Structures are given as C-alpha cells and as structure tokens.
TrEMBL record:
Region spans: Disordered: 303-324
TM spans (from-to): none
Protein name as catalogued: Bromo domain-containing protein
Coiled-coil regions, chain positions: none
Source organism phylogeny: Eukaryota, Metazoa, Ecdysozoa, Arthropoda, Hexapoda
Alphabetical UniProt keywords: Bromodomain
InterPro entries tied to this protein: Bromo_WD_repeat, Bromodomain, Bromodomain-like_sf, Bromodomain_CS
UniProt organism field: Cotesia glomerata (Lepidopteran parasitic wasp)
Gene3D superfamilies: Bromodomain-like
Length: 324
C-alpha cells in the first residue's frame, strides 16, 4: 500500500504481464505468437521496401485527401499493422488477416474500380496474407513477381509500378454525389465486411463443427432439443442471397449458432464447448466494430439527407421570392 494517502506504488513487470491476454495454443501457428509476429514483421518490412507498396506504408494524408475520412470508415496501413504486431496488439492471427484485407477494400472504396492503385492494393494484400498464412518465411520478391504475373495474365492492364501511385482524384471530385448516395453504398459496405468476417471465421479450425448443418444420423436428439438450427453455410447463403437487411440480422443468426452449441453441448470442459467460446469471442470482437461503423454511416447519411433537404427547401423559397 502507498505510504501516504493518495500516493501510489509502482506496478511490477510481472504484475503487468499477468494482466495481459494469454493466447490459446490454436490461435497462432505452432502456438507461438512471439515467433509468428517476428516472422510476419520481417516479411512486412520486405513488402514495404517494394515500390508498389509505397501508397500503403503510412496513413493517407487527410490534408491532401480530406475526402478520404468521409469515404473510408476504418483506415489501415502497413506501418500500423507492423506496429500492432510488434506490440502484440492482435490477440489472434485472424485479427491481423482482418486488418490486411482492409488495405484492398479501402482502396477499392475510395478509388476507381480498375485504377492502378486498386490493382496494387490487391497485390500487396495478397502478398501480406501469404506471409501471414505460411508457417515459414517466404521469398517476398519472388512471390511478389508471381502475383504480378498472375494479375497480368488475368488483366492486361496490370503494370509494375514505375511511377508513384496516389489515390485517385477523380473519385474525390465526385465525393459529394457519393456521400449523398449513402444508403445503397452503406448496404454494400456492411455486407462486404460481414463476408470478410465470415470468411475469416470459416478459415479458423474452431469453425469446423459449425460449417454445415448438424447431421441427424450422428446426433438424432439434436433437432428435438434445438428449435432453430443454424450453421455457417446457411448464414453464408443468406448473406450472399441478400436475405439480411441489416448487420444486426446477420449477427442474430451468427449468435444463434453459438447459443445452440452451448445449449446442446452442456459440458463446459468439452472440446466443442471451448471451440464455441473461442469462435464466439472472435466473432463478437469484430462484429462490434462492424455494427458501430454501420450505425455511424446511418447517422452520417441521415445528416447529409437532412442538409440536402434543407438546402433544396431554401433554394425553392429563394426561387419563389425572386419570381414574386
């Protein structure tokens, strides 16, 4: 205790360590977060040395591209990802993959669909995901040129970046129209993010028992105990089929998967119960941000529409006064 009232005592390093999240063995390759993070950081360092990665090394300068903050809700860049890996910010490797995928999705959102920077973002994203996915170090320049060759074969417009690539200004010029078309684009945004999340969960080993409907032959009592069965494939089909009108509906079905599992697998020490808890925690961790961004977009859209109506009303009154 402090000697004086209102005083303080230093926190010991081991006390700080005890408060930190301790990764589970299956959340990182070989169960070793330290070694995996060091390996990925070395790979990202090599990616950042490539000319094609230059636009994605640091955050977009809002002084040069002020519109970027209105279009992209979750900015991310290679330096931020690298720092997060160095500081053990990511509890699971799947979270690092989630951030990397936003390099491409943000570029696609802000720039013209077939612009050079969008193609560069896709290559950089694929390269980083390859680094993360492999359990050993890869030859980054070799894999990079393989990816470029692949993109060239599928699209003759893909070029090696001989000049500096910057965010497209043509998209910035049409920002006012883009913001006012917010309802449809917000719908696309949250659905894209939910697909990304679902894909990340699917790749996790813990998702194996939840990918398909429960087999009636293996578990004949399941459908007697569970009123509304749900699985990842059904959710995926509903998402791709446009059956969810909001991310809240998507989240409701996802949570139903985990609730059903806990209700059926009541032994908290069982392997599948632990898998359920881990996958559910992973889902909640990312879904909170998706719903937060969706709500922010709704508020922004509502404000923009209100200002547009007010401006139109003011112009109409001015016109009527002038004509009178």
């Amino acid at each position: 205790l402090p000697i004086e009232i209102g005083g303080a005592v230093p926190v010991l390093p081991e006390e700080i360590q005890n408060t930190l999240y301790q990764p589970q063995p299956d959340e990182w390759p070989m169960g070793d977060r330290e070694a995996t993070c060091r390996r990925i950081v070395r790979g990202i360092d090599q990616v950042m040395s490539l000319a094609i990665a230059e636009p994605f090394i640091t955050p977009v300068d809002l002084n040069i591209y002020p519109a970027y903050a209105f279009v992209v809700e979750y900015p991310i860049d290679l330096s931020t990802i690298k720092t997060r890996l160095e500081n053990h910010f990511y509890r699971r490797i799947i979270s690092a993959q989630f951030d990397v995928r936003y390099l491409a999705s943000n570029a696609e959102k802000f720039n013209e669909p077939h612009s050079q920077i969008v193609k560069a973002a896709r290559i950089v994203t694929d390269l980083c995901l390859r680094i993360i996915r492999e359990t050993t170090e890869i030859d980054v320049p070799v894999v990079y040129h393989q990816l470029v060759d692949t993109y060239q074969s599928s699209d003759s417009e893909v070029e090696l970046p001989d000049k500096k690539i910057m965010p497209s200004t043509s998209r910035s010029r049409s920002l006012s129209n883009r913001i006012l078309r917010s309802h449809n684009e917000n719908t696309v945004d949250w659905k894209f993010e939910c697909r990304q999340l679902l894909e990340s969960l699917w790749q996790c080993e813990d998702s194996l028992p939840f990918r398909e409907p429960v087999d009636r032959l293996e578990h004949p009592d399941y459908y007697q105990l569970i009123d509304t069965p749900m699985d990842l494939r059904t959710v995926k089909e509903d998402l791709l089929g446009g059956n969810y009108e909001t991310p809240l509906e998507f989240a409701k079905d996802m949570k139903l998967i985990f609730t059903n599992s806990k209700n059926y697998n009541t032994n908290k020490r069982s392997k599948i119960y632990s898998m359920t808890v881990r996958l559910s925690a992973m889902f909640e961790e990312h879904m909170r941000r998706i719903i937060y961004l969706w709500n922010s977009n709704k508020r922004r859209s509502k404000n923009c529409q209100m200002k547009t109506r007010q401006r139109a009303s003011k112009e109409l009154k001015t016109s009527l006064t002038t004509n009178a």
